[in-house]
Specification:
The chain folds into 3 domains: 98 residues, 2-Layer Sandwich (Nucleotidyltransferase, domain 5), CATH 3.30.420; 94 residues; 130 residues, no CATH class. It has 13 helices and 7 strands.
Length: 342
Amino acid sequence: MSEVAIIGLDLAKRVFQLHGAMADGSVAFRRKLPRARVLDFLASQQRCVVAMEACASAHSWGREIARLGHKVRLIPPIYVKPFVKRQKNDAADAEAIAEAASRPTMRFVAVKSEEQQARAMLFRTRDLLVRQRTQLINALRGHLAEHGVVAPTGAAYLNRLATAISDEKTDLPEPVRQMGTLYLEQIEALSARVNDLDRQMRKVATEADNTRRLQTMPGVGPITAMAIETFAPPMTIFRRSRDFAAWLGLVPRQHSTGGKQRLGATSKMGQRDIRRLLITGAMAVVQHASRKGAPDGSWLGRMLAKKPRMLVAIALANKMARGLWAMMTTNKDFKNPAAAPA
């Protein structure tokens, strides 16, 4: 009897579908199991590849299944979809997962550790609270604008709104003052929680040598370093620095045919959190160079002389991604090219 080579596992809340395939692709079994029996069934199987779609619960299942001795492969759902035959159901999904995992050029997602997922929760929680605070500030600005109190966008101008609410000379109805005070209290509470999470993230970022090393690069702070450590896979899976930049979506989108290259804007197909933070950090470096002046003869100075600042920031973010890959693969701190001897 031939041995099972790949098991495609379609994850669910209660009932899981499994598709076992031989080395030649033929069907070994199709099973539907409740959640409580999945691990027992896999433990009874010979050691093979167990493939799943990368989702919220896939990493936890991946760690449990790996402890049984199986090789775990997580596949982005978008790469599984082309292998689904005709109708969409759990059995067809499990078969498509097994088929996709058998492709020699398939790209997989690294299984995250519990520590990485804990850091990810810390990062996501801070991001959520910042968005909620921004929503409250914008809502307060909108309500007060209806009563003639106008302030520029941004949390830096919140004091103007607070002053208008507390100033008795301002012609505001009493219900507006009460609701405005409620908004300000909620914003202050969220700011305190965000500051507390920032302190936790800075503490975590200084404990590990890798995150400390990443912060030696201009434009990379504790939050960016922690995001890279949390969301990026091991840098050894990328053959070169451009592969990491492409994984982040910091390379042009291609629509080439007939040997003619057609390049567009950035693809934005990679990890959006790291990409956003790198672009934000790059924009801060660009703005500082625009005010203070870039070093003579530097790449940044030449780019700012002939290109828009946003375009330069995207290009700088790409260079930062490549530099971060080099720093993490060689275990070396950042070296400023402008400071290097000619």
